[in-house]
Amino acid sequence: MTIMDMTSHMASHFDDAIDTLKASSKELAQPLSDAVDLLFASLANDGKILACGNGGSAADAQHFIAELVGRFERDRLPLAGVALNTDTSIMTAVGNDYGFDAIFERQVLALGHAGDVLVAISTSGNSPNVMRSIEAAHDRDMSVIALTGKGGGSIAELLGDTDIHLCVPHDRTMRIQEVHIVLLHALCDGIDALLLGDTL
Ligand SMILES: O=C(CO)[C@@H](O)[C@H](O)[C@H](O)[C@H](O)COP(=O)(O)O
Ligand SMILES: [Zn+2]
Question: What pTM was estimated for this model as a whole?
Answer without folding.
Answer: 0.97
